[in-house]
Structure formats: C-alpha cells, structure tokens
Amino acid sequence: MEDVRRVMGAFSRRDHFKVVLVLEGANELHYATRSYAVDRPALVFTNRLVPYSWELVEGGAEQQGYVCGFTESFLHSAMRGVSLKESVLYKVDGNPVYFLNDEQRRYLTEVFVRMLRDQDSDYPHKHDLLRSQLSLLIHEAAQLPPARSYPAVPTTAAERITNLFLTLLDVQFPVTAPSDEPLLKNAQDYADRLAVHVNSLNRAVKEVTGKPTTAHIAERLVNEAKMLLQHTDWPVADIADRLGFGYATYFARFFKQHTGSTPLAFRHPA
C-alpha cells in the first residue's frame, strides 16, 4: 500500500488487485471495454485480470490519494463466507468506480491512513487487521451506487462478450514463474470468470471471430508452451502444471496434437 502523488500508470498484467482512493485530480479510467470520468473523490477497484489505464484529462490536476494492492489469496482470506464472484473486485464485467460524498471521503481516508499505519507497525497480527480493513472497503463499496460508464467503442452483445473473453485470455500471458497459479484452462473456466453461460460464450466468440472458444485457448497455450520450452529450463512437468494441465502426459498429448512434436523433441530438436 502506498500514498499516491502521481497519475496512475498504465496497466501491468502482473499487477495485483488494487483499491484506489482518489482524493483529487481529473482522469479517465479505461477499464476493459468501458471508460469512466473520475473527476471527483472516488473509490476505484481494479482487477488484475482486466486491462486498464489511467489517462490524465488535458488541463486537469494530477491524481492524488491512496492505493492498496493485494494478491488474490489475501483477498480470499479477507472475504471468507462471501461470494467473490459477486463482489465488486472479482467481476470482470463489474463496475469499478464509486463516487464519494464528503462524509464518505473523510471516513475512507481514515481507513487508508490506518492501513498505512498498521502495515508499518510491528504488531504480529497486522495482516489480520489489514484483511479486516480491506473487507470493510469492499462492503462499503457494495452499498454505493456505481458510477456510469461510457463504452470505448460501440459493440453488440456478442462483441462485448468476445472482447471480454479475449481480454481475459490475453492477460493470462506471458507466464513468468512456475510457482504462479495455473491459468484458466477451458471455456467453462472463462465463462465462470465472466459470469456468463458457457454456451453463450461459445456462441458469441464463434459469431464474432469465426473460431470456437477452444481454438483461441489452444492457440495461446501452444504459443506459450513453445516460448517456455525454448526460452526457459523449466521441467516439462512444471510447464504443464503452470499451463493448467493436471499431468505432464496430458500436456505432451495436447502439444503433439497441435504441433506434431513432443515437448522434449521440440526443446531439443535432432
């Protein structure tokens, strides 16, 4: 967590989830296929699975406030007993911006100041405190009306679903470490994360791109597998696990089906 005295930078696909308390400034938040004018105090949630960027409005003041970044596992611990898929932070198609009145601004500023204090303390249970405060922020936002967005580009329902799917697929890559959590594996995983029925997802993607959802996923997995085999020394089993395959044999079968070569033969060509 940090005190922010600058315009928020462009999205990094490996960033954590974030909660931003905007106190001053005039900026536009471009979030997935939507944009928001953030020109007054607001609580803003950004999901690491959704590409976003902040753009300073011409002639506007730089953004000032606080930002709290955290991992998905920390979020799960903070939100026990609450469906994360229904929370403001977890919905790819959710509303990330909530404007604040003066009383809400003062109250939430105090929460962020306490979080900064607790983070820097030697209290042995400070992470429990931080989880409680994060949970409080999420519950506070759930009671606020979301800000209105405007579409970045006009889209049909099928285009909107497809754009969200392709966005979610894109931010799964590149794979940076074998210890990272596995990627979403199949069309059902993506549909669940997007909160749509898998049949609706498949129908929209095929209509817009001419290719089934599984083909898009397979292409990205094959390309990433090739990169990892060529440019890392990770064991094939680690690559298989990181790409969402339960067993190295499943990965080897998949890779050969799409490339005509086994992973080891691809890595060490004759």
Automatic annotation (TrEMBL):
PROSITE patterns in UniProt: HTH_ARAC_FAMILY_2
HTH araC/xylS-type domain ranges (all copies): 188-269
Gene3D superfamilies: Homeodomain-like
UniProt-listed InterPro entries: Homeodomain-like_sf, HTH_AraC, Tscrpt_reg_AraC-type_HTH
SUPFAM superfamilies: Homeodomain-like
Superkingdom: Bacteria
UniProtKB keywords: DNA-binding, Transcription, Transcription regulation
Family matches, as PANTHER family: ARAC-FAMILY TRANSCRIPTIONAL REGULATOR, TRANSCRIPTIONAL REGULATORY PROTEIN
Protein name as annotated: AraC family transcriptional regulator
Species of origin: Hymenobacter ruricola
